[in-house]
Design a protein that fits this description.
The complex is a heterodimer of chains A (213) and B (222). Chain A is mainly α. Chain A contains 8 helices and no strands. In chain A, α1 (3-38) packs antiparallel against α7 (165-176). Chain B has 222 residues and is mainly α. Classes of the chains: A mainly alpha (213), B mainly alpha (222).
């Protein structure tokens, strides 16, 4: 396998990383909405959030991607396949991240919230200064985990025609008749990206302040 | 946009056959994965430092790379090392090895959670290593590893959909093909999504029922 082929794989991995990062960020935003719906104590808000989460965690990502890719044109939205891919990945990761966030908010120590109330902070202040930072701190390891899962899951967007790392590897394997070397090289690139994410995540986590009990 | 579900439901025999393949691969693959994973965990726990390192690296590679790349390696790379496999066996091997990596981690943490004193007590009364595994480690860790194991089984059910890419004639492949023939993608994929959703929900609920029924068999609080 030549250097040229490896360069092509590395180039394609930029798409893998970009799609994953964008999806995780969009998913994070949707997850904030979903988890606040779950914690709202109003059936009207909880039920739709639960159904959303159950669906996107219960259906294989591949099926979600195929559904979104074919559904968008059917309802008159002709978007490039990369957009359909990002929509699919974002909705899926949102469901998982929402569950994590709900857990994070649920484990904010009650004593901290009570003392904030005691010193007269408003509900909004308590959310912004106490609940949100602590919940995010508690769920950070789960977020790093989710990032790695999405990086791996992004290989599935090759099916809807986005030329990312897996699709590039498939095309190169077909044209060069070197599937073993090329898929092994693609696997190594995924492994390297994931190790970097895990390592950086660990570094950031250690630099974050601990949570008071 | 028209939505005519009958186009899909006319193809019921084909769909049933696809669903059968999905469920067969899921059940056989999960059992094989749990089995291999168990022996990997035993090897890492009792096989010495070198074996632990080698197996640990393998597990890390399998957990750090996408399942799709792994089955491409088996299915398209296999013939170049004299391993020409049909899609179904390739898929079964792929899902068993992939799942085994995760199951080995579940069992490994199960082993680690069994109190050391119980093992030492077994050694003191003269049990052999095999006896300690069979009579102390296994029964004590079963309850601990049950919830993550069931969770993993559900994850593997969803991963079987990926096998459609290497033309395994399971449900996703079958319904995608029907969708293409009838030009009814949205209908076909909706049926597909609902099938998985229902199956995953049922499995998840059954798992929770089994868990609550079995909690009285816990030997210690971890």
């Amino acid at each position: 396998m030549s250097i040229k082929l490896f360069e092509l794989l590395l180039y394609a991995s930029i798409y893998t990383v970009t799609i994953s990062v964008v999806s995780i960020l969009i998913g994070f935003a949707i997850a904030i909405l979903l988890s606040s719906m779950l914690l709202s104590k109003k059936r009207l808000f909880i039920a739709p959030a639960q159904i959303f989460i159950s669906f996107f965690r219960g259906v294989p990502l591949l099926v979600q991607l195929l559904l979104i890719y074919n559904m968008l044109p059917a309802i008159g939205l002709n978007v490039p396949s990369i957009v359909a891919a990002i929509v699919g990945l974002s909705l899926c990761t949102a469901a998982y991240q929402a569950e994590n966030m709900r857990g994070g908010f649920a484990s904010v120590p009650v004593g901290l919230i009570e003392s904030a109330e005691m010193v007269g902070l408003t509900a909004g202040q308590i959310f912004r200064r106490i609940k949100a930072p602590i919940a995010l701190r508690l769920t950070f390891p789960a977020l790093v985990n989710e990032a790695i899962l999405i990086l791996k899951a992004s290989s599935l967007v090759s099916v809807v025609g986005v030329i990312e790392l897996t699709r590039m590897a498939q095309d190169l394997a077909g044209s060069t008749f070197l599937p073993l070397q090329i898929f092994a090289a693609a696997g190594l690139i995924y492994l390297a990206i994931n190790w970097i994410v895990a390592f950086a995540g660990g570094l950031i986590e250690r630099s974050l302040p601990g949570v008071p009990r | 946009m028209t939505f005519d579900i009958n186009v899909i439901l006319d193809q019921l025999p084909a769909i049933a056959s696809g669903a059968g393949v999905t469920i067969m691969i899921w059940i056989v693959g999960t059992i094989a994965a749990a089995f291999i994973g168990f022996f990997v965990a035993v090897g890492r726990r009792f096989g010495g430092v070198l074996l632990d390192r080698i197996l640990g690296l393998l597990v890390a590679v399998l957990r750090g790379t996408p399942f799709l790349i792994q089955i491409f390696l088996v299915y398209y790379g296999g013939p170049f090392i004299g391993l020409s496999l049909d899609p179904v066996p390739a898929g079964l091997i792929g899902i068993s090895i992939y799942g085994a990596a995760y199951y080995s981690e579940i069992f490994r943490s199960g082993f680690l959670a069994v109190p050391k004193g119980h093992i030492e007590a077994g050694e003191c009364v003269g049990l052999s290593q095999g006896q300690i595994i069979r009579r102390i480690l296994l029964p004590e860790m079963t309850m601990l590893v049950l919830p993550p194991s069931l969770n993993m089984a559900v994850l593997l059910m969803k991963e079987t959909a990926v096998l459609s890419i290497i033309t395994v004639p399971e449900l996703t492949a079958t319904l995608s093909a029907i969708g293409a023939q009838q030009y009814a993608f949205v209908e076909a994929l909706t049926v597909l999504a609902v099938f998985y959703w229902v199956l995953v929900e049922i499995t998840g609920r059954l798992g929770r029922i089994v868990e609550t029924k079995l909690t009285r068999f816990r030997f210690f609080n971890a």
